[in-house]
Design a protein that fits this description.
This protein is α/β, with parallel strands linked by helices. The strands form two sheets. Strands 1, 2, 3, 4, 5 and 11 form a six-stranded mixed β-sheet that branches. Strand 7, helix 6 and strand 8 form a beta-alpha-beta unit. The chain is globular, with a radius of gyration of 19 Å. The N terminus is likely disordered.
């Protein structure tokens, strides 16, 4: 177990070197002279986390006495180590990475919902895409092909496999390649990968290059799939329940606001991604419900077991808030 946590601590330094300083490693967030508490949050530069950027701008966190220090990483699998080591007080992660962590004894605790699929085939914020002119026309054709996902052994592996499975292909033969979302458009265009599970804004970028969507993988997993949540460490949650409550309250308000203000969501994206303004109208936005969909998470957990992601099954009764 010591080796496991040492590995997570080392991973946290790779996520954000600033998170590994003497103050960043503490379980306690820093306080300013005005009484505002600064909490470090690990996020991914994708549309999923637009609500926290919007909530920060709108003052929802300030109203709770919080200031967010946001640091971007490649995926939830990379953010988990930062939270566990104390480098971040909160993080954003896909559900599969959280379930893998919990099933191996890593002390993570989701505290508020993150993002969900639209549930509509062909109109979701994440999809498997291929380059213009590709001979791949169905997820079934991905067997033996290189498919880009942002991090290995996360929700996107499972989602791709389920799309391949439902299309009649062999999911065990998919060759996954780890690639940051913002690197996927160029890699696909250059033929470095055969397909990619991209989310917005990378998805809109690929489509603008003539790319074609062949599967709505999150929808293939479950109609109302809870894709990700915000989480903390069990230690931080136990020692700082008031801060966790404040973060949860502000994030819930941010999710609600984002759902009802799509134009502001599109605009805030330009503050933390490099998407051109011309592509903003083409973005497909996800859903940001207040509560996670437990049934969809149970489905995701079962698929993860089928794909051999867990040595022991995660305990969802303990994991979910």
């Amino acid at each position: 177990m010591r080796r496991l946590f040492a590995a997570f601590a080392a991973g946290a330094c790779l996520v954000a070197a600033s998170a590994c300083g003497s103050s960043g490693g503490s379980d306690t967030a820093s306080s300013s002279s005005g009484g505002t508490i600064t909490v470090k949050v690990g996020v991914i530069p994708i549309v999923d986390v637009a609500p926290v950027y919007l909530g920060q701008k709108k003052g929802f966190y300030e109203k709770q006495g919080l200031k967010l220090s946001l640091t971007t990483a490649q995926g939830g699998a990379a953010i988990v180590p930062g939270v566990v080591s104390g480098g971040f007080q909160f993080g954003f992660s896909n559900m599969t990475s959280l379930m893998i962590a919990q099933s191996t004894g890593v002390p993570v605790k989701p505290v508020v919902n993150g993002v969900a699929s639209t549930g509509v085939q062909g109109k979701d914020f994440g999809a498997i895409v291929v380059k213009k002119g590709s001979s791949i026309t169905s997820a079934k054709d991905l067997a033996g092909k290189k498919v880009a996902v942002n991090t290995l052994k996360n929700i996107n592996d499972t989602a791709v496999r389920e799309s391949v499975r439902k299309a009649g292909g062999d999911p065990s033969k998919v060759r996954f390649v780890e690639l940051a979302f913002d690197q996927m458009p160029a890699a696909l265009d250059k033929g470095q990968v055969d397909a990619a599970l991209a989310v917005e804004p990378a998805l809109a970028t690929i489509k603008s290059q003539g790319g074609t969507e062949i599967a709505s993988s999150y929808v293939d997993v479950a109609k109302d799939l809870t894709v990700a949540m915000y989480f903390t460490s069990t230690s931080y949650a136990q020692k700082n329940p008031a801060v966790v409550k404040k973060f949860t309250t502000a994030t819930e308000e941010s999710l609600k606001y984002a759902n009802s203000h799509p134009d502001e969501v599109r605009s805030i994206l330009r503050s933390y991604t490099q998407i051109p303004a011309s592509l903003l109208p083409q973005l497909t936005l996800p859903q940001w419900p207040a509560e996670p969909d437990k049934a969809s998470i149970e489905t995701l957990e079962k698929l993860g077991q089928e794909d051999g992601l867990y040595k022991t099954a995660p305990d969802l009764t303990k994991l979910l808030p």
